[in-house]
UniProtKB/TrEMBL annotation, chain A:
Keywords per UniProt: Cell membrane, Membrane, Transmembrane, Transmembrane helix
Protein name: Predicted ABC-type transport system involved in lysophospholipase L1 biosynthesis, permease component
UniProt KW Cell inner membrane keyword: no
Bilayer topology annotation: Multi-pass membrane protein
GO cellular component: plasma membrane
Keyword Transmembrane helix appears in the UniProt entry: yes
Transmembrane segments: 20-39, 305-327, 347-372, 392-410, 416-439, 469-488, 708-727, 756-782, 794-816
Location within or outside the cell: Cell membrane
InterPro entries named among the record's database cross-references: ABC3_permease_C, Membrane_comp_ABC_pdt
Domain ABC3 transporter permease C-terminal, first and last residues per copy: 712-820
Origin superkingdom: Bacteria
TrEMBL record, chain B:
Protein's UniProt name: Putative ABC transport system ATP-binding protein
GO cellular component terms attached to this protein's record: plasma membrane
Domain ABC transporter as annotated: residue spans: 6-223
Segments forming a coiled coil: none
GO MF entries: ATP binding; ATP hydrolysis activity; transmembrane transporter activity
UniProt cross-references to Pfam families, sorted A to Z: ABC_tran (PF00005)
Gene3D superfamilies documented for this protein: P-loop containing nucleotide triphosphate hydrolases
Listed InterPro entries: AAA+_ATPase, ABC_transporter-like_ATP-bd, ABC_transporter-like_CS, ABC_transpr_LolD-like, MacB-like_ATP-bd, P-loop_NTPase
Segments crossing the lipid bilayer: none
Record's keyword terms, sorted: ATP-binding, Nucleotide-binding, Transport
Lineage, top ranks: Bacteria, Pseudomonadati, Pseudomonadota, Gammaproteobacteria, Cellvibrionales
Length: 831, 223
């Protein structure tokens, strides 16, 4: 009992010390971030898992952008236990002068094969569970569509010249999972009986819901792979979730974030730990000299350490639970409707135990050198500890090993982990060499010169070992911060560049020739101007060099997930004015009928394409191969519509596929109210007001910004902690030095100048290392993990570094000024 | 002649009594002393009498609460900073910079003054105190006596007009203390500097030209 009381008293006493508080704060921040990440991830994964098992509406779902032929359909029916057919079409509904774009699902009488629909008798009524879709002549609308159109259940609306009665409010369909994280407004009607195709023009998706046992499923998978290369198949058992690609990218980012925070936290704790070791060694020596055995001394230390860990974990756990609520609410509001159910906030005890266990292991590993040091030393050594280079190097190596192992265990992206750790190791070696070389050289050159700068270099060179540790810590911190800020900025800019540059205020997403003729007449009448118009056909990329795109590319990416659906294949004899050539050679006159293709630069990077590759597309029922001869990029200033894939004009015209148009228009204010005429005549016409587009983009950007801000706050806190640990590491030495210098006749401002020189030199070396480290990490990680080209902006890099260096110098100067406030006598007496 | 003159010096600080009441503790009052170049002064007294505080005031490291410290250097009135530039210090705790080696510690005052010959002069003084073989050693690799010899070398390397020593032998054994005392007074004689020494050691104090006793807030000249 006395022993535990002593440990508790020691612990309580230590809580008043700045170093202990810094250590606890670092532990708490690390635990908070890890718990938040793990708990949120687990909640989300749980929801995804539930979605998959309860909400696919079938055992398998096959999606295609063309209907199955009668033979294919009967073959599929033969292979499966049950089959239901649905179709999805994007149309605009109009009612009483109001318009609403919806995703209309046409379902047969067998839909859904599994699960139930949730509907209501009115917008606000209780959810009611039904096992079948709407009957003929009925339409069910989701609450947003009802609100948008000003409709109530019981009322009717006209669609393609036919009267449909709104009989239910649609809340949820069991195959919502197929919509991924789409938040489109939905409607549901019965599939016209006996219709070979739907009576709605537009981009129709054909979905076949299938029930099958394991052996039937295997047969279906093999059959689809063989017969329907352009089809997309989702399986309930061990299948890939549509959100999986998106989530993997998110996890990649957070994996990297965790790594950055681990590194910062680890270095900060190691720096603080070294000072704590000295203090603890002294205390242990006193206890041992009073008769405490070394083993009991270690136990005492262990109990105190565990108390600190428990306190950190408790605080972090409470904060993480609150944080998890916030993160999931944010995701829920952004992905509203994608899951159909709320993402449940839960403790996930197994996840909690695993995360805290791993963190405890890391902290224990970081403590091991201290424990060994304290446990092995004699009383005399404990009272007069010495720092030896091999011990320091060993400690550093040990820290890196623990850190690497833990990150490897935590992150499931080994490649990213290795790349990042490799970059950091190279950076550390570079900074250490730079510190040694520069300080030695500068000290030699200024040895015979007077002045504070020469003196500063002399003292820095003399305490090279300690200084190297400080510079390495700060360099690492600067590298990680710089890299993260740059990545965040570049990701943001990439998003913005992809989405923001628009001209005109209405985008024509898809119009047939007949619709286009009507639009032209309408625009002349309403005074609207057509800005840009490009023809295209819908094409599905089915093979790259004979392999399925996923197999060829190997890694999930934005482009890969997009090409799972048909893309727009455009043509142009000449390089469009808003494009620039980034690779290869554009086709010349005479090549116009040859099967050549140019691919957008970022898409080429994303998919890992090279010039000379063969790309096979399914176009209008035929499979056509193109040779990649050029790469193009967007050039602003000549219209915003650009295509990922472009071919010579003669290459597709002969295929007889339906030619569609994409373009942009500028509508005067008065024309907006007449837009409904077009939609009434052509419900399948896809027009998108730019405002609506920018709203969607802004919502995504707002989500990203909030998450990034939260992460930046954590990162900033951790960096501040590290800097505080670095500054405090030398505070005592600096106070002693200042006292001595003042006693030798230097004024206070000389001490401040000396301090400033020291921090500037430290910041310059750390900054140099950080720039090199960031470039290396950028070259290695940007392309392979985030599919971005690494093109650093030197002004941004130097500007950010200058801000960090200024902050560091100011903090150092503030501490120095603070320590100089006492008189020389006091300073000397304190030493 | 260079000198430091203490005129009606008084010093006190605020403390608390055992019952926790605020209490002013007087160290000394109306104290007068003149320290001239080439002379050595030893100040004796019981612990807590204020010897170290008095030394800090003579060395212009601290300001007195009452009275004045008048400094005359090269025939002119000088300030505290100028005095510090012409002073050397030897402390009981040595106050060597642990990150610098022996040579670096001795060269420190010269480097601060921009002396291009700092290393050579420092080597000479290391030799003078018998530590040339330890030039590359750090303070924590030296014994207490060696650290104090290093501190003496540092105090004299810049040819100071005044040297102030606070319990220079307080942490050392008798034999080493005697050696350090001889070294200190030998250097003072060689350089013609003034020495102000605070000590408990009668043996050491007897080596000084003047001996003073600080007790009960008064400074008495001992015979």
């Amino acid at each position: 009992m006395n022993f535990l009381t002593l440990a508790w008293q020691d612990f309580r006493g230590d809580l008043g010390q700045v170093d202990i508080r810094l250590q606890l704060l670092a532990q708490t921040l690390l635990a908070f971030f890890l718990l938040l990440l793990s708990l949120s991830g687990a909640s989300l994964r749980n929801t995804l898992q539930q979605n998959l098992s309860e909400m696919l509406g079938a055992d398998l779902v096959l999606e295609r952008h063309r209907p199955l032929s009668a033979t294919q359909r009967s073959a599929l029916a033969e292979l499966s236990a049950a089959l239901s057919e649905t179709r999805l079409v994007d149309i605009t509904l109009s009612h009483a002068g109001r318009h609403q774009q919806v995703q209309l699902k046409l379902v047969d009488h067998r839909y859904p094969l599994q699960g139930r629909l949730a509907v209501g008798r009115s917008r606000a009524s209780e959810h009611e569970s039904v096992g079948q879709g709407p009957g003929a002549g009925e339409i069910w609308l989701d609450t947003r569509a009802l609100t948008g159109l000003g409709l109530a259940t019981g009322e009717s609306l006209r669609l393609r010249g036919r009267e449909y009665r709104v009989t239910r409010a649609l809340f949820h369909e069991p195959d919502r999972l197929m919509a991924g994280h789409s938040v489109a407004v939905r409607a549901m009607a019965a599939l016209p009986a006996g219709a070979g195709g739907s009576s709605f023009s537009g981009d129709t998706r054909y979905r076949y819901l299938l029930n099958a046992d394991t052996s039937q499923e295997a047969a279906i998978v093999a059959w689809v792979e063989r017969e329907l290369p352009d089809a997309h198949l989702i399986r309930k058992r061990g299948g890939q979730h549509p959100l999986a690609g998106f989530w993997q990218r998110v996890e990649n980012f957070f994996g990297l974030s965790a790594l950055v925070l681990f590194a910062l936290g680890g270095v900060a704790m190691d720096l603080i730990g070294r000072r704590l070791l000295r203090r603890e060694a002294y205390r242990q020596a006193v206890y041992q000299s009073l008769g405490l055995s070394p083993a009991r001394g270690l136990c005492l230390y262990g109990v105190k350490w565990m108390l600190g860990v428990a306190l950190s974990f408790l605080l972090a756990g409470l904060l993480a639970l609150a944080g998890q609520q916030w993160v999931l609410q944010l995701l829920q509001s952004h992905l509203a409707g994608a899951f159909g159910v709320d993402i449940e906030v839960a403790w996930h005890p197994a996840v909690l135990a695993r995360t805290l266990g791993l963190l405890l292991l890391l902290l224990l590993c970081l403590q091991l050198p201290t424990l060994i040091g304290v446990g092995r030393a004699s009383v005399l050594e404990l009272l007069r500890p010495r720092q030896r280079l091999p011990a320091l190097a060993l400690r550093l190596a040990w820290m890196l090993v623990c850190f690497g192992l833990l990150v490897a265990a935590y992150s499931d992206n080994t490649r990213l982990t290795l790349l990042m750790i490799g970059s950091l190791l190279v950076t550390l070696v570079l900074i250490a060499s730079l510190t040694f070389a520069l300080l030695t050289l500068a000290e030699r050159l200024t040895r015979r010169r007077g002045g504070l700068l020469a003196f500063c270099l002399f003292t820095m060179r003399q305490r090279l070992l300690g200084k190297s540790a400080q510079v390495m810590g700060l360099g690492l911190c600067a590298t990680l911060l710089l890299f993260t800020f740059m990545l965040l900025r570049d990701l943001g800019q990439a998003m913005e560049a992809n989405t923001r540059s628009m001209d005109g205020n209405l985008l024509i997403v898809r119009a047939t020739s007949a619709q286009m003729a009507d639009i032209e007449t309408w625009s002349r009448r309403t005074g609207s101007a057509l800005r840009q118009l490009r023809p295209y056909v819908r094409a599905q990329l089915v093979r790259i060099n004979g392999l399925a795109p996923e197999a060829f590319s190997g890694q999930p990416s934005e482009s890969l997930s997009r090409i799972a659906r048909p893309i727009r294949l455009s043509w142009s004899a000449e390089l469009p004015a808003n494009n620039r050539l980034t690779a290869g050679r554009w086709w010349q006159t005479g090549d116009e009928k040859r099967r050549q293709i140019s691919v957008e630069d970022e898409v080429m990077t994303d998919l890992g394409l090279s010039l000379g590759d063969t790309l096979a597309f399914a176009i209008g029922g035929q499979q056509v191969e193109f040779t990649l001869v050029a790469g193009h990029g967007y050039r602003p200033g000549a219209g915003s519509i650009t295509f990922w894939f472009q071919v010579p004009p003669g290459a597709v015209k002969s295929l007889g596929a339906e030619v569609l148009q994409m373009g942009s228009m500028e509508l005067p204010e008065r024309a907006w109210s007449q837009l409904g005429e077009l939609w009434r005549r052509h419900p399948g016409l896809e027009l998108l007001p730019v405002k609506q587009l920018s709203e969607r983009f802004d919502a995504t950007l707002a989500l990203v910004t909030r998450v990034v801000s939260g992460y930046s706050l954590l990162l900033g806190l951790m960096a501040l902690l590290l800097v505080a640990a670095c500054v405090r590491g030398f505070e005592r030495d600096d106070r002693r030095k200042n006292g001595l210098l003042l006693s030798l006749g230097l004024r206070r401002y000389h001490c401040l100048r000396l301090n400033l020189y020291e921090w500037l030199i430290t910041a310059a070396i750390a900054g140099g290392g950080a720039i090199a480290g960031t470039s290396l990490a950028g070259q290695l990680i940007y392309r392979s993990q985030f599919h971005l080209n690494y093109r650093p902006d030197p002004f941004y890099l130097l500007g950010t570094l200058a801000v960090m260096a200024a902050a560091l110098c100011l903090l150092g100067l503030w501490c120095c000024r603070h320590s100089l406030k006492v008189s020389v006598g006091e300073l000397m007496a304190e030493s | 002649m260079d000198h430091i003159e203490l005129r009606a010096l008084g010093h006190w600080f605020e403390g608390r009594s055992q019952r926790g009441e605020r209490k002013t503790i007087h160290l000394f009052d109306n104290l007068n002393l003149t320290v001239r170049a080439g002379r050595s002064h030893a100040i004796l007294g019981p612990s807590g009498a204020g010897k170290s505080s008095l030394l800090a005031m003579i060395a212009a490291l601290e300001r007195p609460k009452a009275g004045e410290v008048a400094i005359q250097l090269d025939g002119k009135v000088a300030d505290a900073i100028s005095l510090r530039r012409r002073s050397g210090f030897v402390f009981q705790q040595f106050h060597l910079l642990p990150e610098l080696d022996a040579l670096g510690n001795v060269a420190l005052p010269l480097r601060l003054r921009g002396d291009g010959e700092a290393r050579e002069k420092a080597r000479h003084w290391l030799d003078r105190v018998g530590l040339s073989a330890r030039a590359a050693h750090r303070p924590n690799q030296l014994s207490g006596g060696e650290q104090q010899r290093l501190a003496i070398a540092r105090a004299f390397v810049a040819e100071p007009a005044f040297v102030f020593a606070d319990e220079p032998t307080g942490n050392l054994d008798q034999h080493t203390a005697a050696y350090i005392g001889e070294l200190l007074f030998g250097c003072v004689q060689e350089q013609g500097s003034a020495l102000v020494l605070v000590t408990h050691s009668n043996t050491l104090s007897r080596m000084a030209d003047c001996r003073h006793q600080l007790s009960g807030g008064r400074l008495e000249l001992l015979a």
